[in-house]
Amino acid sequence: MPKTVADVMSRDPITVQSDTPLTEVIRILAERRISGLPVVEQTGKLVGVVSETDLMWRESGVTPPPYIMLLDSVIYLENPVRYERELHKALGQTAGEVMTRNPVIIHPDKSLREAAQLMHEHSVQRLPVLDSKEHVVGILTRGDIVRAMAAEQG
User: In this predicted model, what pLDDT tens digit does every residue of 127-154 receive, in sequence order?
Assistant: First the structure.
């Protein structure tokens, strides 16, 4: 019988709330040697994920979109909305300000194959695992899937 997400996910993952200061998020990631955290409301519902990638904006800076001037008009050659999002992340002080909203999620009864396909399609490192009430009950990483594959091979 194929393994499900519930069989290999990490249960009761560490979560933070939107108002958690970034200094605390960074400390948790470093101390626990993890690369991302689910961000939840006080009720426990998932609102986003904050990852090392989200935090890189603080160090790498933000590049404004290319533009040309024509008479008195600025014409952006790239969507300036992306720049505004990146700038907000670079200047953010809380988990909610830098997190990735609407993360890709999975439910515990799904197969590992489905989880692997989702991770591949969306280029994500982790999937928050949600119950029917949208509460975080676990987290599944690429490493969890690889370890499950190794265990099957004996």
Answer: 999 999 989 999 999 999 999 989 888 7
